[in-house]
Amino acid sequence: MSDNSTTQTTPDTALAQAAGAPALSGAPQRGGLKSFLPSFSGKLAIGLVLTLGITAFALIAPHVTQDPRNYDSDRFLPPGSGHLLGTNNLGADVLAQLAEGAAGSLMVGLVTGVIAILLSLVFGIVAGYLGGWTDEVLSLITSIMLVIPGLPLIIVIAAYLENRSLTVIAIILGLTSWAGPAIVLRTQARSLRNRDYVAAARVAGERPLRIITVEILPNLLPLLAAQFLGAFVAAILAEAGLSFLGLGPSGSLTWGVMLNQAMAHNAFQVGAWWWFVPPGLLIALFGCGLSLINFSIDEIINPKLRNAPAAVKSVRKARKAGAEVTSSATTKEA
Question: Residue 198's domain is classified under what CATH number?
Answer without folding.
Answer: 1.10.3720.10
